[in-house]
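Section 3.1: Structural characterization of target chains.
Under the original work plan, the team committed to producing a structural model for every single-chain target entering the pipeline before any wet-lab resources were allocated. The record below documents one such target. The sequence was received from the expression subgroup and is listed exactly as submitted; it comprises 194 residues.
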Amino acid sequence: MANNGKIKELANFIWSIADLLRGDYKQSDYGKIILPFTVLRRLDCVLEPTKQKVLDYLPKLKSMKFKNTEPVINKVAGFNFHNKSKLDFEKLKADPDNIAANLRNYINGFSSGGREIIEYFSFNDQIARLDEANLLFLIVCRFAEVDLHPDAVSSIEMGYVFEELIRKFSELSNETAGKHFTPREVIRLMVNIL
């Protein structure tokens, strides 16, 4: 059962991060930043309990002769996706001078399914733009404060939070609800991964 108050509160907190974008971005473009960061943070929180286990397993995997290592690493991670990067949101915060390169490294550490979701948002362009505006580090720090672990936010609640954020961004860009939607194949991919 979804907790509407909790969903609203979480969506409002994530939405408040968009305030950092004022002046550098048009309001109608806020979603290009906030939505992929929300997905990234969710994936980060989901993988956090098994992250070290995956990192510890990687050297062993090199000695094995698998053509496709993704299913093996996914099994170690315990999900249909994984991240091989040594970075996470906490480690990204620890190196503000290299935030753009480190964030790209972190994203590239995801298995193909995880990267596919992020690539849907054309996020790489936004990383460069945010970095030039000196906003990238601030946004990473704010998202690091958001606990999107499944123990704190169920999959159903996460879906409602995402839906609420999309609704808010649609209102800002003066689009009707039907004009701004996440394609079904992306929703299916996100649901399968999470």
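The chain has a mean pLDDT of 88.
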